[in-house]
Description:
Layout: H1 2-10, H2 16-23, H3 27-39, E1 61-69, H4 76-85, E2 90-95, E3 102-108, H5 111-122, E4 128-135, E5 141-142, E6 145-146
Antiparallel strand pairs: 1-3, 1-4, 2-3, 5-6
Amino acid sequence: MKEIIELLEQNAKLSAEDIAKILKRDVKSVKSAIGKLEQKKVILGYKAIINEDRVEGFKPVRAIVEVQVAPKRNLGFDYIAERIYKFPEVKTCYLVSGTYELLLILEGENIHEVSQFVAEKLAPLEGVRGTVTHFYLKKYKEDGVVFAAQSANSRNNITL
Length: 160
């Protein structure tokens, strides 16, 4: 099962037939294993990594938001996290260690929309003690995929 998961993480387009060839297993057992992984909610979905700089039209604005929260008595961090991740603007929500408790990735049509969400919906929530917002400027790598090959330094050397 671990090998199947690793292969699908690297390339979600692999078919059961492709995986069977790579692992030297029969297709029926690979299909069965994938079905069980999906049924047990180990595999929750399949995703394409998109280079939005090359897509014409809509390019969403994304932000990373650090959120300091006070856990709800007898419910812990799960209660406030669930209230937050249910908002459609919240694409990712992690409980983390460090100076803040939740790390969010937000998405909107423009900077104003994302800022407005933080100011009017997220920050006023009961249990939220503070937020710090960082807007994405450029994406270099996502999920192990490099977006642009590093170009050679084209700057001229200055000599005196």
